[in-house]
Amino acid sequence: MPVITYVQHDGAEHRVTLPVGVSLMQGAISNNVPGIDADCGGACACATCHVYVDPAWMGRVGERGAMEASMLDFAEGVRETSRLACQIKIADEHDGLIVRLPEAQH
Amino acid sequence: MADGSVHQSARDRAYSSTDRVGRCRDQRTSVRTTALAYFERLRAEDPVHYCANSVFGPYWSITRYNDIMAVDINHQVFSSEAALGGIAILDQGADLRLPMFIAMDPPKHDQQRKVVSPAVSPANLERLEPLIRERACAILDALPRGETFDWVDRVSIELTTQMLATLFDFPFEQRRKLTWWSDVGSCIPGPGQVVETEEQKLAELMECLVAFTELWNQRVNAPPTGDLISMLAHGEATRNMSPEEYLGNLILLIVGGNDTTRNSISGSLYALSKNPDQFAKLRANPELIPSMVSETIRWQTPLAHMRRTALEDIEFQGKTIRKGDKVVMWYVSGNRDDAVIDNPNAFIIDRERPRTHMSFGYGIHRCVGNRLAEMQLRVIWEEILKRFPVIEVMGEPDRVPSPFVKGYLNLPVRIPA
Ligand code: FES
């Protein structure tokens, strides 16, 4: 199963093993990784699961969907590597993926 | 459990008189305890319900959490456009059709929203927090002891109005005008309401526009500052707004930044006093304040609904919603849907996922000021707990007579000497 690393804003790292098929957001919530609110429960409707994907991994997490892009349009501190964690489904090829969390979800 | 538990008699009525269901006559006056029984029945028996005939004309009621979310995020089909009727169950009258970004679709909505969102950015909120705390302390320290006073007037209105005056850089001594315009802006004119006729409402709002036009003219001729008026006056997408559009966005910011937080501040004290076990839990563990704040915002649902207009025919949960139909998303009902929220009628300050609620809406119109609202509530409660070991609610509050704003006109409270 893929191992994912969530890096907090203060640098603290959480390494978790996730089953294929769950979302990057669910993976954080079910492992008590702090820093992701996920108010809408993964419906791409709140933008409180904002993460920055490590640049080296950008090619392997796919592209933002249309709804995701419009939600990110209103989020804080959005960069090119910004994604909504509920919209990334964990696959085998994500083993080793690193994502960073913003200072706070807004 | 007050508002939480549906009174048995109201529940019986809801289940016995089919013609009242969905017609939601209660909604004409206010979203009361009793209305929750009608929503409970709608969720169970007809969650996407067409009401052919009401004082607001025909409309659909969407009452389940997940259905509301589906409508809220489908802005391509369910429009917020003011010209189609806007965002509330009462259509915006032709003479009083105020364009505001909440009542716009993309791309205009997106551009205008982005002009004001820096005001509630994390950096700005951090800057504001000490000021909010200072003001909260001053308000609390000035409260009388050993006598009954109105919590709504002395605390809820005072704190939110001071905050709003700060965000606008509005003349501080005149800040209660903001409260007044907020009440006027969100009211449906009629006998016994803050204004009785559409003409009166228009006249009051024009006064608001005049006052704010003066501020606009000051700000537009000065370098940009961090206040909302300056942001609008200098913002690319807003600096050429028509007066109606300016007024519309002002009313949006005033109501959005005032009514909702005000009623959540009152609601939090009311809910805690009705649930002494929860109050005790909070006192024993102030770290629960943020979660209590989220639970209050769910339980209170300060805006009972938002409305959309269908832009095309659409099949939705087995019903056909037609182009042009009015679609009302009852957040107040979604927040009581036990398919998503465990034991939803209870007020539980340490729920597992207290942020799972729809009071801020979902999708591109999700409340832009939600973090500011949460912060104001958190700060006032941090300071309350430091000061007052006992606050007694002395009687039942009067409710705001509105199907849109779910709130309190007053709340009699006493702090022992
Ligand atoms: S959880 Fe709400 S957008 Fe991802």
Report what the structure shows.
The complex is a heterodimer of chains A (106) and B (417). With 106 residues, chain A is of the alpha+beta class. Chain A has two helices and five strands. In chain A, strands 2-1-5-3-4 form a five-stranded mixed β-sheet, with helices on one face. In chain A, strand 1 (3-7) and strand 2 form a beta hairpin. The longest helix of chain A is centred in the first third of the chain and has 7 residues, at 24-30. Chain A starts with a strand and ends in a 6-residue tail after the last strand. In chain B, 47% of the residues lie in helices and 8% in strands. Chain B has helices at residues 8-16, 25-29, 33-45, 65-73, 108-116, 122-141, 151-168, 176-186, 198-220, 228-234, 243-256, 259-274, 276-284, 289-300, 331-334, 370-387; strands spanning 48-51, 59-62, 78-79, 148-150, 306-310, 314-316, 319-321, 326-329, 392-393, 412-414. In chain B, the strands form three sheets. Chain B has a five-stranded mixed β-sheet, covered by helices on one side. In chain B, strands 4-10-9 form a three-stranded antiparallel β-sheet. A two-stranded antiparallel ribbon of chain B has the order 6-7. Chain B starts with 7 loop residues before the first helix and ends with a strand. Classes of the chains: A alpha+beta (106), B alpha+beta (417). FE2/S2 (inorganic) cluster (FES) binds next to loops of chain A. The site of FE2/S2 (inorganic) cluster has 15 residues of chain A, from loops.
